[in-house]
Structures are given as C-alpha cells and as structure tokens.
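Sequence in, structure out. Go.
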Amino acid sequence: MTQPISHVVIVGGGTAGWMAAAAAARFLDDGQRRITLVESDAIGTVGVGEATIPPIIGFNRLLGLDEGRFLSATGGSYKLGIEFVGWDTGEDRYFHPFGHHGRDFDGLNFHQAWLKLRDRDGIGPIDDYAMAAAAAHAGTFAPPVADPRSPLSGLAYAYHFDAGRYAAFLRAQAEAGGVTRIEGRIERVERDPANGHVAAVVLGDGRRIAGDLFIDCSGFRSLLLGQAMEVPFVDWSHWLPCDRALAVPTRRTDPVLPYTRATARPAGWQWRIPLQHRTGNGHVYASAFMDDAEAERLLLANLDAEPTDTPRRLSFRAGRYERMWEGNVVALGLAGGFLEPLESTSIHLIQNGISKLFALFPDKRFTAVERDRYNRFMTDAYDGIRDFIILHYHATRRDDTPFWRHVRTMTIPDTLAEKIALFREKGRIFRYDDELFAVPSWVAVMIGQNIMPDGYDPIVDALDEDRVADALRQMRRANATLARTLPPHAAVLARVGQAGG
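Output:
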C-alpha cells in the first residue's frame, strides 16, 4: 500500500516558488493534500530573468493562463529569438530563431540542402529561411499556423516579461487555488534522525512547519538541498568563467522589438530585453578578466535610453548540484543550479523540473527508482544546456582580449567536442535523450559563429539540384514578403492587451 503525500512545503517564493505553487494548486490539490509556501519579504529574489523560450507557452496553458491577461499583468512582449552581435569576430551578427529554417526535403534536414547550394545566386544566408528571423528583423509578429503551406507554420515564439510581476501573477493564481502562504524567515531546518529527511523548517519566531515533501526554491542559498542535505555542487566555472552580472532597467524605447539582443563585450556580454513598460539591460562578465567598476561603466555607456534605477549586482557560480532530488527534498531553479541567461533557459529549467516532478510524484516511501529517474532527467537537461552555452564562447575567432583568447582555446566537454566535430565534417547534428535544443538551434549557432562544415550529407546528391535551388529561393522570397505584411509587434501587443484587460 502506498502512503500518499499529505503536505507539500515550498521553501521560497520568487519565480521558481510561485511557478511550483501555481502548478501544484492546479494538479496536486485533491482536497486531501495541503500546499504551503514559506517566504520572507525581507529576503529579496533575483528576479532579473525576463526572457523565455517556447515551452513556456505550454506551461502557461496547462495552468489555464489567458495570454492577454498574462501579457498585460507582466508587461510582456513576444520573443521570436535572439540576435547575437559580435560573438565571432566582433563585427558580426546572426540570429538564433525559434522554429525552423525552411522545410525539410524528403526527411533530410533543410540545412543540408542549404549547405550544398549556399553559393548559388539568390540563395542567401540561412537566417533568411527562418520565418521567426524574417519577422524579427521586420519588427512584425504573428502566431504560428497549422497549415504547412504557410511560412508561419515554421515559426515559434516565447515571451519577454517582468519576472517579479510574473511571480505576483502566479501567486494570485496559486492562492486562489488553495495554496497557503506563510510569511517568515527560516532560521533552522530539522532533519529526521532515522532517515535523514527534512522533517520541518523552523521560522525566526519559533513557528515549526512540518511537511512530507519539501520543494527548495530558496535561490542561490539552496537552503535545503545544498545546506541541510549537503548535496555536493558541481562547479562549471572552468568552462563558463562569467561569474558576475549587473542588471539595470531603462525607459521603453520604440519600436518594441520582438527579440532579445546579446552583444559580446570584452569580458562577457550585454543583454537587451524589450518589455511593454521598460527595457531590461544587463552585463554578464568574468571577474577574473574585468573589475566591477569597469563592468558598470561599460554597461551604462552602452544603453540606448536613460536608466530608471541604479544597477543591481549579482554574483554566481556556474554549475549544478550532483542531485536535485535528495531524500524528500527537490530543488528547483537557482537552488538546484545556475546557467547564465545567454539562451534564456532559467525559467525553462524550473518548468522542466516541475513537470518531471509531477510525472514522478512520490508517496511517503520516496522510492529510489523515482528519485534516480528524476535526477537523470535533470542532470541531462543541465548538461545539454551547458554544452550549448559553452559553444557560443568557444566557437569564436576573437582574440582581441584575454577573455576571448581564454574561452576560444580552453578545453571543452567531450560531448560538445564530438558535436562540433560531427558538424564540421558533414553538417550533422544528433540529439540525445531529452535534450532541449533541437537541430535548427545548433545549426543557427554553429553557422552563425562560422563553424562551416567541410561537406554535406551525401544523400543531398540524390535530390534534383536545380529544383531544390528553386524551392529555396521561393522559401526565401515568401518569408521576406510575409514578414513585411504582418502587423507591427507593438500593434499586436496593444490588441492583445485590450483583449486581456
């Protein structure tokens, strides 16, 4: 006989805590199970994550969130991808789009045909074949459609939003669904001497909150997983040396672009994230190669509007904990690990952790098979994203600063080295297990940073070369034409906002 979990305790609020609480209220509250969230207003949240990737749409829909209300409440905008500026030579730019490049040919990846024909007249850069990139450059937006004949069928999108407002929006949803919030600072964690599980958290005023399952959303402190359960941390700073960030908002500038921009700097990079009411900006950098004062000077000198607040400084260490489920503790978000926001994966990792936890939801026995499967899922997710982020740094020809010379020559994980080697040979990309980034994403960054294959898949030679070339030109023209006729991004936001009230 199983012993059902009767009390879930979420430690910490912020984006991770309230995402977990809202999801738990919708899927775990069966009238018998209690859900409690403990947070302290005296402890700030990181809250600078403002960009997401397409799976957030599915998460919001599962929670029953109306897109219009969500965008209005969070000051959100649409995101079609990321523009990278200066990552290869310092003068270059390329686009990582959401969705696909063109259409595949008889099951053969589109980029293989493009590789063979890219030097022909009228073929152009691979960016031109992604509808998301074409619309982003035109400053327009429309949602994808199901009709495979339309270029919009290959488009995907995500959001930019104010993370603090998103947490507040989800808090209202969670509390309406029965979640109890307790205000207070946790001073002590009690563990069961018999099995080592967390038995309760004790607040500064002496209140004791016992539970069956504890979800650690305490941020970088990792109060339960890292501190109480003493799970070791796997440090990746030798591959990802950036360990500081400065974040500062500026007033809104028009037009509100439907994409994030990541601009390479001498010891890191700068983000620009357009929201409806402001623009989010930040500078991620390596303290071993640049001091804090210079990093702040560089950020403030490269803003396109007046700042509306003083820069906020964050320190972090890239990596993850060896296990994100230990005993009766599951860590989400920063409490389980951190990967810099270069590809906007932080909120996705929270969402992924929630979905995997619910898929493997335990009873009071906390069996090893469920726990181990969860840990494999999550470590694979972190490791795959880690490799994708390292690629951006390592695949560069920049040698103008010590930082760029370091990252271009450093030893990289074997898993990434193999991916690069396979792509250099014939443009092949293989995904493993539950890997987040699909073939078009790897292709966009590899080609965008000038990893150009020596050849292509020989299967392409079985296709009629002239017919394929004509098809490519038609795709390119169709994308460009449609992008110009779509409504401006700002107009879409205004219409959606009115509908969402």
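Check: The mean pLDDT is 95. The radius of gyration is 23 Å.
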